[in-house]
Design a protein that fits this description.
elongated, seven-stranded antiparallel beta sheet, single chain
Length: about 150
């Protein structure tokens, strides 16, 4: 992540920046183990090998303008874009989870959004600040099976 921030002097303050991620993760033995001895099911498990890659980037900008000595308004915008790919290989058979050992399941997803932010702050004394802020956000989710 890279950020550029204005000085704290003057009525206008700003921040602009960008973010980039290129990530690869490998997980061995992920899964769940459930025991239901009353119905004869002991240690049913769904273990898997997961390889996931993700590329993401974002660009953002925030500005704050000091309207008076005690009142300021803020506005910002952020754009986010991501692509996720996964390959899941089931290594055990599970009756509960419906998996069969040796099956591979690829999945992929892409996410993109532009999100606003606005705010107002009032500082009537040196020890008290009241503010209201509206912002939207989201997280990219998992990928969908193909």
């Amino acid at each position: 992540e890279l950020r550029l921030v204005s000085s704290d002097e003057g009525r206008l303050r700003w921040t602009v920046g960008g973010y980039f991620k290129d990530d690869e993760r490998i997980q061995n033995g992920t899964g769940f183990i459930i025991s239901l001895p009353l119905i004869g099911l002991i240690d049913d498990q769904s273990l898997a090998y997961v390889r996931a890659t993700a590329e993401a980037w974002a660009a953002f900008a925030d500005v704050e303008y000091q309207l008076t000595d005690t009142l300021a308004v803020q506005a910002g915008i952020r754009h986010y874009d991501a692509k996720i790919d996964q390959l899941i290989r089931f290594e055990t058979t599970s009756l509960i989870f419906g998996t069969v050992a040796g099956v591979e399941q690829p999945s992929a997803g892409s996410y993109s959004d532009t999100l606003p932010k606005i705010g107002l702050s009032w500082t009537p004394t040196d020890k008290l600040m009241l503010y209201a802020k509206y912002a939207e956000g989201f997280r990219d989710g998992g990928s969908n099976y193909r």
